[in-house]
Amino acid sequence: MNLPLTGGCLCGKVRYQISASPIDSMNCHCRTCQKWVGTAYLAFMWIPADALTITGDYKEFTTLAASGNSVYRGFCPECGTALFGRYSHFTMVRPVAAATLDDPSVFNPQKDIWVADAQPWDIMNPDLPKYAGNPARSTKL
Ligand SMILES: [Zn+2]
Ligand SMILES: [Zn+2]
What we know:
CATH topology: Metal Binding Protein, Guanine Nucleotide Exchange Factor, Chain A
CATH class: Mainly Beta
Shape: globular
Bound molecules: zinc ion
Largest sheet: 4 strands, mixed
């Protein structure tokens, strides 16, 4: 993977740069992510928080995770693209939506999470490990 990774929203007003390799990469099938991106799952990477540089004004919408912690979901106020987030209790990493990369083909998902919430029309890679909910708290299926 060639660093830095770059990406941004649909209209181009919000851009970001990632200067370190992702810590983890996964697909989240929870209902909140489904709503956020408007499709079956959110494909995202965990990036070291200090490796993410953002330019342009974005907005955040706060959702409550099953753990009780807050997830601040960052999006472009102009075009609405779901871009990245941050966690209230887990500040060392930040999630970045893989499809917003300039070259999304570098994304390499390692697991499917919250598959208990997945839609019947959501087709998953059978080779990836699957977790019913949060991988740290739920059983591997
Ligand atoms: Zn935009
Ligand atoms: Zn989710």
